[in-house]
Amino acid sequence: MTQTASSQGTTAPAGAPASVLLVDDEEIVRLALSRMLRSLGLAVTDAGDPVKAEQLVQSGEVAIDLLLTDIVMPGMNGRELAERLRTARPDLPVVFMSAYVPETAFPDGRLPVRSRFLHKPFSRDDLRAAVEDILAEAG
User: Fold this and answer.
1) Do residues 15 and 59 touch, judged by C-beta distance below 8 A?
2) Are 41 and 15 a contacting pair, CB within 8 Å?
3) Does residue 121 have a cis peptide bond before it, meaning omega lies within 30 degrees of 0?
4) What does the alpha-carbon distance between residue 124 and residue 110 come to, in Å, rounded to a whole number?
5) Contacting residues for 71 by C-beta, under 8 A, at least 6 apart
6) CA dihedral 103, 95, 64, 124 (to 10 degrees)
7) Is 117 helix (H, G, I), strand (E, B) or coil?
8) At 29, phi and psi to the nearest 5?
9) 9 and 63 in contact (C-beta within 8 Å)?
10) pLDDT at residue 15 greater than cutoff 80
11) Sign of the C-alpha dihedral, residues 80, 86, 90, 92?
12) Is residue 73 within 8 Å of residue 104, measured between CB atoms?
């Protein structure tokens, strides 16, 4: 796990980079995305599985402004992780990623509010646009 998140709390202090919790079970994908996010000026904490990600947030070990999560992972999927984290923080912005179509995780075809979907593989520009868009919406 790489941890460069900002201090305790739910959002980064004024002037600090937005803090992203990146969750993907594929290490090579996590490393590449972590580099991309840092190149966009974001603080990144990554986790290889949703259970670890949930523990990091619930323990107060990390404060996040955005959850960027793969949808299909063993044990708990990204949709379930987002729902659990939103129990304590209903306004948490989420960007879901998957090589599958969104209907795999969202059978009704509707993403939850304050969410975006990125189809893998995606470019750095696609990632930047989704992150900027969702963070701007979150205020």
Assistant:
1) no
2) no
3) yes
4) 25
5) 77, 78, 79, 96, 97, 98, 100, 104, 105
6) 150
7) strand
8) -65, -45
9) yes
10) no
11) negative
12) no
- What's the whole-model pTM score? 0.87
Of 110, 121, 118, which Cα lies nearest the Cα of 134?
118
Which contiguous run of DSSP H or E holds residue 46?
Answer: strand 43-47
- Tokens found for residue 125: 């520009």
Instruction: Compute CA distances 55 → 49, 78, 81, 132, whole Å.
Output: 10, 14, 11, 26
**Distance from first CA to last CA of the chain, Å, rounded?**
28
- pLDDT of 54 higher than 50: yes
Distance CA 79, CA 102 (A): 11
Q: Which residue has the tokens 């979150």?
A: 138
Q: How far apart are CA 62 and CA 113, in angstroms?
A: 23
Residue 136: both structure tokens together = 């701007």
Confidence at 29, pLDDT banded by 50, 70, 90? very high
Can you identify the CATH homologous superfamily of domain 19-138? Answer: Response regulator (3.40.50.2300)
The answer on pLDDT for 2 being more than 50 is no
User: What is the per-residue burial (b if ≥16 Cβ within 10 Å, else e) of 82-99?
Assistant: bebbbeeeeebbbbbbbe
> Cα–Cα distance between 102 and 96 in angstroms, integer?
9
